[in-house]
Amino acid sequence: MPVSAVTFRERKERGEKIAVLTAYDFPMAALMDEAGVDAILVGDSLGNVVAGQDNTLGVTMDMMLYHVKMVRAGVKHALLIADMPFLSYQINMTEAVRNAGRLVAEGGAQAVKLEGPVSRFGDVIGAIQRASIPVMGHIGLTPQSIHQIGGYKVQGRGEVAARRLREDAIQLQEAGCFAVVLECVPAPLATEISQSLSIPTIGIGAGPGCDGQVLVCHDLLGWGRARFTKTYADARGMMRGAFEEYIREVKENSFPGPEQCYE
Ligand code: KIV
Fold this sequence. Notes:
By secondary structure, the chain is α/β, with parallel strands linked by helices. It has 2 domains: 5-232, TIM Barrel, CATH 3.20.20.60; 234-263, no CATH class. The protein has helices at residues 5-14, 26-35, 46-49, 61-74, 93-105, 118-130, 146-149, 159-174, 187-196, 217-223, 235-251, and strands at 18-22, 39-42, 79-83, 111-113, 135-140, 179-183, 201-204, 212-215.
């Protein structure tokens, strides 16, 4: 049965861990879906890993829609979640609902994710859900607030920050979010938050106590350098090797060989 925002919660109730990956195009999404991933997030991390930008702030609705449509074409089973990019939900509720709606109606996403606590975006989270669009929360390190946070660093350290994060997580649950991403949070705190919520937590750099994990696909394929990522396959190295071999064969005129030629 295809995964939905509803089945996400059921997985937590059954104690089944949830595996989420990011994807930005058709072939990668189709492969992950075939492999059995539970959800695919078209993250605004595409600004970094696809568009080569320093941060996610330059990602636009047009860019998101372009990538969500490609991913949609490859996904049959996994839940397709789309990130709401910077300034697509911060300006006012009407724009937020329209933009979330576009990601669903034009892009084919089944849920949206937005960064920040209920104290800032509670009204927006409510309005998007009233339009029948499931919302995933995202707290801890929120890359769209990078200039305010002052760098990509662990969040929730110290009693005051930890309490704030615990409260933010509870409030996102009360606001109706179907899941919440915890990014770069000390593992014991993420475990405690996960145990206190009935909705699943999806961790990235938040330890094994979360109800699920998400990784940026380029990170697990050899492009990642952050401590919390793991290289499951050095696809980057393999691809570079293939490019080098092709270049060498063209230069020495051994490609194309007889088998690649028409009689
Ligand atoms: O943009 C993204 O890929 C994300 C994940 C890292 C959670 O938000």
